[in-house]
Design brief:
This protein is an alpha/beta fold and 304 residues long. The chain has 14 helices and 9 strands. It folds into 2 domains: 160 residues, Rossmann fold, CATH 3.40.50.720; 122 residues, N-(1-d-carboxylethyl)-l-norvaline Dehydrogenase, domain 2 (Orthogonal Bundle). It binds nicotinamide-adenine-dinucleotide. The site of nicotinamide-adenine-dinucleotide has 23 residues, from helix 4.
Length: 304
């Protein structure tokens, strides 16, 4: 803690994301110490008022809350738990906040190993991109005990505009994986659909106007599911059997026009099976969620 009673902050990993995020912490008047294996990455932060640590050990000894923003699981585990790392040198009650996107199993190992040493752990992976990080408009998916979130909230607010408390440690990184699964898979799906529009010779602007005004651009999650499957109503609506017919027509056209549609073909196969599973063929196509949960052996998703 510094002389004004504020916790001292450490930041490890000053790359594309870490550099602007750390700069925003310094800009909001927090006392900040930084470390990166690339010495040159620390210089702009020193100019912004931060102190460059000579080693992880030095940073760990000096800080109350330590953020890590590193490439992948082995990097975070080495920096936090490895020889000469943060856990070895941190004071009791230091809070380590990992914002990297890593394997949730590694997150669980970190949380448990740090708890055993009397240290706190929060996972707070970041939504949005470098552009928002530069502007201090990041989104955080936080897995934390209430107390620990209270300790880091000020620094998170310095770096971002949106904080979602997803649950205890480990829930932030799992939310991030769900988010990125959807964001990346729909990116591929959108690419296939727009390539088909191009092969058809359609005007892309008009096509975009159409798909942006229907459930096509994932209005499922925002518009239709809340009033259908998520509230327990799977009466049609638009039957799975008809959805299968429409998707099969689109895939037939894609094949005729030589447009590869990997995601579309996989979805057609899933709907083909759904049509034959119990009474699903006659249910609203939002009931694909119920079937996916049934196949995963988990309970149905219902949101009040
Ligand atoms: P980056 O590769 O640009 O930065 C990583 C930084 O960590 C580098 O400066 C590197 O020198 C430093 N580093 C590596 N090993 C280190 C060690 N042992 N000790 C100290 N410093 C070390 O990566 P990034 O784009 O900033 O991403 C960081 C994390 O955030 C990743 O997990 C990424 O998946 C995630 N993420 C990235 C974005 C994005 O748009 N780039 C968005 C959200 C989340």
């Amino acid at each position: 803690m510094n002389s004004s009673g504020r916790e001292k902050i450490g930041f490890v990993g000053l790359g594309a994301m870490g550099r602007p995020m750390a700069r925003n912490i310094a800009a909001k008047g927090h006392e900040l110490t930084v470390f990166d294996v690339r010495a040159e990455a620390m210089a702009p932060l020193v100019q912004a008022g931060a102190t460059a640590a000579a080693s992880l050990a030095e940073l760990a000894r000096d800080c109350d809350i330590i953020f890590t923003m590193l490439p992948n699981s082995p990097d975070v585990e080495a920096v936090v738990l490895g020889p000469g790392g943060i856990a070895e040198h941190a004071r009791r009650d230091t809070l380590i906040v990992d914002m990297s996107t890593i394997d949730p199993a590694a997150t669980d190992r970190l949380a448990s190993a740090l708890r055993d040493r009397g240290l706190g752990f929060v996972d707070a992976p970041v939504g949005r991109t470098v552009t928002q990080a530069e502007k201090g408009e990041s989104l955080f998916m936080v897995g934390a005990r209430d107390n620990d979130l209270g300790r880091v909230r000020g620094a998170l607010e310095a770096m971002g505009t949106t904080i979602h408390h997803c649950g205890g440690p480990g829930s932030g990184i799992r939310t991030k994986l769900v988010n990125n699964f959807l964001a990346i898979a729909t990116c591929q799906l959108s690419a296939e659909a727009m390539a088909l529009a191009q092969a058809f010779g359609l005007d892309p602007k008009i096509t975009l106007d159409v798909v942006n005004g229907t459930t096509a651009t994932n209005g499922h999650l925002k518009i239709m599911w809340p009033i259908k499957v998520l509230s327990g109503d799977t009466n049609p609506g638009f039957r799975i059997a008809l959805a299968h017919k429409d998707l099969a027509l689109a895939m037939q056209a894609a094949s005729e026009f030589g447009v590869p549609a990997f995601m579309g073909a996989a979805a057609r196969e899933a709907l083909s099976l759904a049509k034959k599973s119990g009474d699903y063929g006659g249910r609203d196509f939002s009931a694909l969620l119920d079937l996916a949960c049934e196949q995963a052996g988990v309970g149905k998703v219902r949101v009040k």
